Amino acid sequence: MGAVRYDSAVLERVAQRFRRDMWDSVVPEAISESGVEVERFGPVQATAFGDLPEVHLLQQVQGAAEPGAIEDGHLAAAVEWMRAREVDYRIPVAAGRPGAAEAEAWLGVRGYERGGGWVKLVRDGSPPDFEVDPGIVVYRLGLDEAEGEGLSTIAAEALEMPLVAGTLFFSLPQQNGWHCYTAALGEEEVPVATGSMLIVDGVAQLGAGTTLAEARGHGCNAALLHRRLVDAHRAGCHTVFIEVGECDLGSWSAVTRNLRRAGFEEAYEGRNWQRPALHPAQVPDRFSG
User: Fold this and answer.
1) Range of the structural domain that residue 149 is part of
2) What is the pLDDT of residues 201-210, one digit of tens each?
3) What residue ranges in the chain does DSSP mark as E strands?
4) 210 and 249: one domain?
5) How confident is the model at residue 275, as a pLDDT?
C-alpha cells in the first residue's frame, strides 16, 4: 500500500464528531448529576465531565488549530467555559493545521505548557491482510440497550477509570454511524475486550481497543481491529484513522505495532497543552477520540 491520501480538516472534523457523540449519548441524569457537558464555540469544541475533574482525558478543548479559532475568539471563549467547570483540561493542537503556530503562541503567552504527544495514524479502506486467532469470537452490538452495559463496564475498567465514566459508552451502539463490538476468548462467551468505530461519509475513526487486564496478550485487540477494518471496507470507507495518545513520543512504535501491521501509517502528530500543576495526581491517558 502506497502513501495514503487524506484531508486533515476532515479527520479533525470526524474526531470532534466522535467525541461529541459520546457526550451527547448520555442519559439526561448524567448531564445534571455528573456534569457531563459538551459545548461548541465556532470550530472549537469543549467537553467536560464534572464528576471526574482530575481525569484529564475526559476534559478536552478540540479545534484550537482550526481557522478562526484564535482570531475570532473561539478558543478564548472555550477556555473560559472550561475553567468555570474547574476540571483538569487539555488542549490538543494538531501540527500542520492552519492555526497551529498561532494557537501554540496564544497558549504559551498565557502560561500553558506543552504536555504529552499524540499521533493520528491513517490507512485506506482496503480489507485487512493479516491473520488473527480464529478462537477469539467478536460480537457486533445491536440495538438492545442492555448490550451497552458490557461495553461501558469493560471500557471503564480497562482504561482504569471509575465506572461512572462508562456512561459515555453505554448508548453508543444505538447511535447513528457507530459500530461497537466486544470480544470473548474461545467458547466462554464472556466479553473481555471492546472496540468501537464511527463512520461518517466514507471516513471511519476507530476508538482505542480496550481489554481487561486478565485477558491481555491473547490477541483480542488484533481480532477487534481486523473485524472493524472488514466492516469499514464493506461500508465503502475510503479512509480509516485512529488517534493514539497520550504517550511518550519514543514509545509510539510499541503502542502502534498492531496498527502498523494492519497498514496504518503516521498522518500527523500534535501536543496536548495544559495549565501547569493544576492537579498533581495524573491518570494514565490511554484513551483516544
Assistant:
1) 136-268
2) 999 999 978 8
3) 36-41, 44-49, 60-62, 91-94, 113-124, 136-140, 178-185, 191-200, 203-206, 210-211, 239-247, 265-274
4) yes
5) 86
